[in-house]
Amino acid sequence: MACEDRRVHTPAEALAALRALPCGERVLDVLGRAPAPAWIVGGAVRDALLGTAPRELDVVVEGDPEPVARALGEVVASHDRFGTFAVFADGCAVDVVRARAEGYAAPGALPEVRPGTLADDLARRDFTVNALALSAAAELRAAPGALDDLAAGRLRVLHAGSFRDDPTRLWRLVRYAVRLGFLPEPGTDALAAAAVADGALETVSGDRLGAELRLALGEPAPLAVLHAAQNLGLVHGLRLDPAVVADALLLLPTTEADPQLTLLGAVIPDAAWPRPFGFTAAQEHVLARCAELPPVPAVGADRRPSDIAALLRGEPVEAVAVAGARGDRETAGLWLHRWRHVTLEIDGHDLLAAGVPQGPEVGRRLARTLGRRLDGELEGGREAELAAALVDGAGRTEG
Question: Label partner for 61 (CA 20 to 30 A): which of 10, 190, 300, 322?
């Protein structure tokens, strides 16, 4: 059950928490001097009222948002259709939008927006606990029942058609439930189950579903979110083994890999699973190899480092990390962090100059020499490599 005695901070306490953010002083100063009423809204207010650190700052202006956006900092993007501005202010990303009302021409469609009041803007939001606004003067506005739901740890939609209008809210339901430790109230729970059963997600594009999936993967507890999503029927077939995921992420090289793709690759059942979610071709390739690459075998008497190199050469590092988590972690770690970086000092030009005929034989000799280097059979540098490469497969020396 959700906690019933959750403390909700006062507006003044929430304002102090927002002011303490790296860019909070600047944002609140600009809002206090704005030519039109301007408010911090949504998740930042929710989190400040709960006494937790806000993850983002969103500003709603009841009027032209552009002067507020430009007063805050550098405008890095704008969208005329929605009257939105993405701003970089004192090291923070801030979204500034015009207060608006919205409607949906069809289930799952993007909203049709028009200028509105703050009340209109709060009424269009996903859950009551996000329908909150705080001014620079500590004035708090909230949708009916929002503060009670916040105190009780409840997730409640603002109207019965919420999931039909925007089925991506189903993903937000599971994300907020896990992150905040909240529970859907019974009516919202029933509406969510009905929306899934009625095929609401089929009205949403793959790109939008993929964006929600990636947000889920970026949550503090992504496996728990995926588990909740699978329970609700948003996804199917995931193999949610925490040990495999944890080991894959531990094996992953930190500077050149995508942890979110690795996490997803560690739980999907097959290469076809990601296709409805709008991934790029390159991302789909990585995920496919995560699903298809067999577990990494251990090095032993009948399997040398060069054999592992031949098996894994060219594979995405994310896929090797997943295959290592399902197989021999030590061998996978050696490949990811050491063996794949081993190179020769010689190249094909050196072999041609030494009399090896141009053609596939050059590549075979280089690969064989690299294998000996990986297996610890070569000592010394360039001269030892060249001597080894000039011995052909039958043991004869070239030249």
Answer: 10
Q: Are 216 and 222 in contact (CB under 8 A)?
A: yes
d(CA 72, CA 26): 7
Nearest to 249 by CA among 222, 279, 277: 222
What does the alpha-carbon distance between residue 31 and residue 25 come to, in Å, rounded to a whole number?
10
Burial category of 215 from C-beta neighbours within 10 Å (exposed 0-12, middle 13-18, buried 19 and up): middle
Q: Which helix (H) or strand (E) holds 257?
A: none
- The three state secondary structure string of 119-171 is HHHHHCCCEHHHCEEECCCCCEEECCCHHHHHHHCEECECCCCHHHHCCHHHH
Structural contact between residues 43 and 55, judged by C-beta atoms closer than 8 angstroms = yes
Provide the pLDDT for residue 255: 81
Q: Which helix (H) or strand (E) holds 210?
A: helix 206-217
Number of H helices, E strands in the chain: 20, 11
Yes or no: say if 359 and 290 are a contact pair by the CB < 8 Å rule.
Answer: no
Residue 86 to residue 183: CA distance in whole angstroms: 32
The yes-or-no verdict on residue 271 having pLDDT over 50 is yes
Element housing 103 (H / E): strand 100-103
Q: Report which of 150, 128, 120 is spatially closest to residue 60, judged by C-alpha positions.
A: 120
Separation CA 340–CA 118 (nearest Å): 57
Q: What would the mean pLDDT of 51-56 be, rounded to a whole number? A: 90
Q: How many CB atoms lie within 10 A of CB 26?
A: 19
The answer to whether the beta carbons of residues 128 and 145 sit under 8 Å apart is yes
| pLDDT higher than 80, residue 396 | no
For residue 240, CA distances in Å to 48, 96, 321 come to 32, 38, 16
373: phi then psi, degrees, rounded to nearest 5: -65, -45
Cα(47)–Cα(58) distance, integer angstroms: 12
Q: Smallest Cα–Cα separation from 239: which of 248, 252, 184?
A: 248
Domains present along the chain, CATH in parentheses = 11-152 (3.30.460.10), 237-341 (no CATH), 348-389 (no CATH)
Structure tokens, 124 = 């269009």
CA 25/CA 1 separation, integer angstroms: 37
- 267 SS3 class: coil
C-alpha to C-alpha distance for 93 and 98, rounded to whole angstroms: 17
Q: What is the mean pLDDT of the chain?
A: 93
